[in-house]
Structure to design on (315 residues):
């Protein structure tokens, strides 16, 4: 049996991609959120509003988490040319998103505990001033959400010459910036809790329904927990290279089956090295001679494959 034909192909696509606009907007959101956090916490103490105080501390944890996102962007850029990172620094951003999601889960737990405490020990609230600050907080959250909205995924599909038409990414979409999504979810969680705080304060003022405040807090904690676990699942999957269920994996098998009838896939490993970029190790067993270059040329139609290694052994 001849030695395997091993070679690698590196696409001109850069593994290291740090979105400057996303980093800049996330940094702005951190500053705005931190400023509003101070206003809400001070207002909560001054007005004896547990709803505002809880929302302010909730916002402080999000400012910290989004600070992690900014740090992840900075580290990814700083080490972009560091040769120790075999496939670039993109996963620093994913690690930032994962860490941010962990903090989001902690926030959800704290919100639940505080809401249950408030259910049994209600506080007298200065409703008019508290509602004004809560509305201001909601406006700030909506502004931050608008700043971070630009990187959401959009539909993507392309036809391939050998008769396949697949969309790439989860559910046929481009993969998006997980680090940015983490920051975006923190802002949306803040907006949701601000809405719930406003509803609770207005209900308490108009109808004397003091129980609305803790109930809304419980609802908000469930929503935040759901977002957190969804982000943990998405970012954890990337960090653990659990990508073998992606459409590109089946497309690689299709190329081998359709273009190389005398070859069979003996080994296949695919993992993500960028937002829409994959590396691949493909092992083939062939009954007639074929070259790794031929295989790479056929796989090149899938532009998301930016680093391909082909190993060919005779049957």
């Amino acid at each position: 049996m001849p030695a395997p034909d091993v070679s690698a192909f590196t696409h001109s696509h850069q593994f290291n991609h740090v979105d400057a606009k996303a980093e800049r907007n996330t940094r702005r959101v951190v500053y705005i959120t931190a400023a509003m956090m101070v206003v809400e916490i001070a207002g909560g103490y001054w007005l004896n509003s547990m709803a505002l105080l809880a929302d302010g501390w909730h916002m402080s944890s999000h400012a910290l988490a989004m600070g992690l996102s900014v740090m992840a962007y900075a580290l990814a850029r700083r080490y972009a040319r560091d040769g120790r990172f075999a496939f670039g620094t993109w996963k620093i951003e994913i690690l930032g998103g994962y860490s941010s999601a962990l903090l989001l889960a902690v926030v959800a737990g704290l919100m639940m505990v505080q809401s249950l405490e408030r259910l049994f020990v209600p506080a007298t609230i200065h409703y008019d001033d508290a509602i004004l600050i809560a509305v201001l907080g909601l406006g700030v959250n909506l502004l931050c959400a608008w700043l971070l909205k630009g990187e959401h995924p959009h539909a993507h599909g392309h036809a391939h010459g050998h008769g396949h038409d697949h969309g790439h990414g989860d559910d046929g979409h481009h993969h998006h910036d997980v680090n940015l999504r983490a920051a975006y979810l923190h802002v949306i969680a803040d907006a949701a809790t601000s809405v719930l705080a406003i509803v609770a304060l207005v209900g308490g003022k108009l109808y004397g329904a003091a129980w609305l405040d803790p109930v809304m807090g419980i609802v908000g904690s469930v929503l935040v927990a759901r977002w957190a676990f969804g982000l943990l699942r998405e970012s954890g999957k990337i960090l653990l290279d659990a990508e073998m269920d992606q459409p590109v994996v089946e497309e690689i098998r299709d190329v081998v089956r359709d273009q190389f009838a005398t070859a069979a896939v003996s080994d296949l490993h695919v993992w993500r090295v960028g937002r829409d970029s994959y590396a691949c190790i493909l092992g083939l067993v062939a009954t007639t001679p074929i070259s790794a270059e031929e295989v790479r040329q056929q796989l090149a139609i899938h532009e998301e494959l930016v680093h391909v290694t082909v190993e060919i052994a005779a049957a």
In short: The beta strands are 5-10, 157-159, 165-167, 263-274, 277-286, 305-314. The mean pLDDT is 78.
